[in-house]
Amino acid sequence: MLNSMDHRLSAEDRKKQLVKIGLMMLRDQPIHELSIDAIAAEAGISRGLLFHYFPSKRDYYLAVIAAAGRRLLRVTKPDERLAPEQQLREMLVQFVAFISRRRTAYISFVRGAAGGDDYAVEVYDETRAGLTKRVLTYLGTPEVADEPASREYLRVHAWLSYTEDLAIEWSGLPEADRPYTTDALIDHSLEALHLLRKL
Questions:
Q1: 21 Cα distance to chain centroid
Q2: Which residue ranges does the record assign to the HTH tetR-type domain (predicted)?
Q3: Is residue 70 within 8 Å of residue 109, measured between CB atoms?
Q4: Which of the 8 DSSP states describes residue 112?
């Protein structure tokens, strides 16, 4: 349980604390299985007080999903001092690592969007759009980053879906059964991107 002295937290800080606890628990269980009672207990507050900050369980879950999307964008942002091709590789390395480390949470994030909740879909789409724009910038085509109807944008967006699914399936295999090492997976994904751009 977190320090009980934090009962004096501001409303905004309390909301951040509760979302942080949700993100922590999301590592081991899907979003729809998060226990509101367990989260409230971890924060040292009552279940009723949690609903003072989040009107419903859905509101809380969506706040956690939004935070997961922001975290993904933050941790996959490479060092801007690197050359563009190195930034692309580093982003991909961090993307695969993020999925591998938080596979359950990531699948929950993806399937939360696939479940059709409008806000969850919006969060997922915004996150994917953010990654797509980064890749386009690293590829030297930032002018199409805000043109989702362009061929280049659509190809990169689709490639991210391919890479995401590949990383999810790969990370779910026992290490001895994986057909790629991490480096080989990154190389394969980059090769797929460059081939796709030539079509």
A1: 16
A2: 12-72
A3: no
A4: H
Structure tokens at 153: 């944008």
DSSP output for 30-82: -GGG--HHHHHHHHTS-HHHHHHHSSSHHHHHHHHHHHHHHHHHHHTPPPTTS
* H or E element in which residue 132 lies: helix 118-138
Q: What is the pTM of this model?
A: 0.84
DSSP state of 174: -
Three-state secondary-structure class, residue 125: helix
Find how far residue 199's CA is from the centre of its chain.
29
With a CB cutoff of 8 Å and minimum separation 6, the contacts of 96 are: 163, 167, 171, 182, 185, 186, 189
Q: What is the mean pLDDT of residues 29-39?
A: 85
Residue type, 163: T
Cβ–Cβ under 8 Å, residues 110 and 124: yes
- Measured at the CA of 149, the angle between CA 145 and CA 150, to 5 degrees, comes to 65
Instruction: For residue 59, give every residue at least 6 positions away whose Cβ sits within 8 Å of its Cβ, in sequence order, or none.
Output: none
Q: Which residue carries 């789409």 as its tokens?
A: 125
Report pLDDT digits (tens) over 131-177. 999 999 999 999 999 999 999 999 999 999 999 999 999 999 999 99
